[in-house]
What does this fold into?
Amino acid sequence: MVSEEAVTDLGDLSVAGVLDFVEHQHAARLEAERQVLRAAYQWAVLHHPDRLPPSDRRGRSRARRAGGAGTPLVTEHAAAVFGARIQTSPYGARRLIADAVDLHLRLPKLWAGVQAGTVRVPHARHVADATRHLTPEEAAWVDGEVHEVADGRLAWTRFETLVEGKVAAAAPELTRAREEAAAKERCARMSRVNKHGMATFTIKADILTIAGIDAAITALAEKLKDQLPDADSNDRRVAAAALLLNPAAHQDLDEEIGPVKVRATVYLHLYADSPIARLEGHGPVTLGRIVQLLGDAGANVRVTPVIDLPGTAAVDAYEIPARLREAVHLIHPADVFPFAANTSRRMDLDHAVPHAEGGATSIDNLAPLTRTHHRIKTHAGWEARHPFPGIVIWRDPHGAHYLIDPTGTRRITPTTREDTPTRVDLAVTELVLNHAAA
It folds into this structure.
């Protein structure tokens, strides 16, 4: 390990030395965040209105609740001084103090993780903010559901989605009320024209309506390829939207293209004994809202049974059939590269052991990667193995190992070498990984 005191010039460090140095600095930053959060809580304790002189009636009367239900009052202007010391506004400091108080009093498992260094401060603060409107009992339930994965193993967007779903499940009636309020925000309007003569037309509606619009634009843009051969995909989509929204202005083109058949697909995941469903690409939705959306849209619903994953046989080919793609998506609903965030269905399916080297086209050798991450694995010295379905072990070019499972990414080995691994190192690692995957 390279200590801060030992470093005089980063130019003197080896590759392994730079990696050790940045890990040390990253750990120091995380520790500093934890200490600032602890100080924010203590600042709230020191600025309870009861500490004011009895004669300061104004200060007592204008104190405000620090966080959610069950948290104490804090004097009105307490955050200003604290915020200035950490170079943030009084508003930013009030939010920090509110998060610290909520964590200490309403989210004890996350707070214990912060104290122990196993929970990231931004993750803990996000949960505090997301649960502030809940009762103490509801917040405590969310705390118990998410504290184990608040250590950074999940990419931020995936952690946000997880918390959103748990908050919805903790208070389904409140979630339903918020859905009803959001449903009234439908709009279709043009934004102001900017200085380059461009503008934006915004349509805000429920997910099924938007999915139908997107499908119609995609279908029509595909039909416009012959009529607009020099246009790129974005230009064709804009032309398709303009044609659909104002066909009278494009009469010749409209007659040439003809009608467009639209078929939109959305994926809904239902869970036993839960009032909350997950709509892929959208997030948690109450079952009542789903029933309403499907009824309003007049949707043709097709129920797909759960795939029998052990019964999904491998194929003797490099190409991946649809049934295997669906099975792999259910096993790996997100990009399996360390700390990756993508959860779409439009990713490459990578053979962990390359097909050309005998790797099977099967659920225990396939996993989704974005094109960028796929290229990194192919060309930058990263290796992956699947010891069990749903589990991926990665080795980076410098000897660090990462385990990816449904809860996210975890570093599982330290690095001890000072230089790039030798061919012998690589061969030994490959033997170990192959044995784990056997």
